[in-house]
Amino acid sequence: MKPSEAWLKTWNEKRNLLACPNNLNDYFEETTVAGKTIDHLELGSVSIPTGDILVRDPLVYIQKDAEPYLIKVPTGEFPVTAAVVVPDDNDEDCARYAAVKVQFTAYDAIRFEEALIGTEDLVDFSEGEFFGFNVDAGLGCVLDKETLKYFCAFQDKFHSENPGKNLYDDYFAVLFAANYAENPIYQREAGDWINWKIPGTDYHIPFFQSGFGDGTYPVYYGFDVAGNVCSLIIQFIDIELAYSEE
């Protein structure tokens, strides 16, 4: 859906307020942030056939009419990386995925701005706020408008052929457990990520744990020095805010 002229005017007036308060490059380039050890986990590739992208909870918010973000990205297959907060030796917590990045080009981001759909209420939006996407099943995924269509078709077929069955318990749980068995680092036994190939297609959609679990999380475009989109980053944990002693 094309945003209104009034919305675009307000967006351009307030774009500086949509900047990420953190330098997200640190999450993917440094080995420590706010005193916490950070490691990086490769999650395979994501398929972007049209450039119209979305970020969703794959078990709760997959709907045919979901709107993609306003700004298109390059098309193709792109690497996906998680920035992981590694628990200390005496820490009983599990590894937490603080952010997940899709890298579209070879260029580095010099600024990060929240990705929007074009229907958000910007009139009363102020500094320190964000819109984000909702998570109710502890998972996130990046997908394209085209792969969304195939995902929805798979979902409908599964439910029609398996009445009373649960898509996670009766399909995805086995895939998560198998991926843990093959790639146990920074995963719990039930599995914390998969790179799912939609049956009957060559399209890949990575699923990954959402940091501290359910909530609302911001998604940022990374823009290079020329002003082009070079990356997309989902921030699940503000590491400085969550772990700094200050």
Structure notes:
This protein has one domain (5-239). The protein has helices at residues 5-14, 25-29, 145-161, 168-182, 239-243, and strands at 32-33, 36-48, 53-56, 76-85, 96-103, 111-114, 133-135, 139-144, 193-197, 204-209, 215-217, 219-223, 229-235. The model has no long low-confidence stretch (mean pLDDT 95). It contains five helices and 13 strands. The strands form three sheets. The chain has a seven-stranded antiparallel sheet with strand order 1-2-4-5-13-12-6. The chain starts with a helix and ends with a helix. Strand 12 (219-223) and strand 13 (229-235) form a beta hairpin. It is globular and about 50 Å long. The chain is α+β, with helices and mostly antiparallel strands and 246 residues long.
Which helices and strands occur, and which strands form pairs?
Blueprint: H1 5-14, H2 25-29, E1 32-33, E2 36-48, E3 53-56, E4 76-85, E5 96-103, E6 111-114, E7 133-135, E8 139-144, H3 145-161, H4 168-182, E9 193-197, E10 204-209, E11 215-217, E12 219-223, E13 229-235, H5 239-243
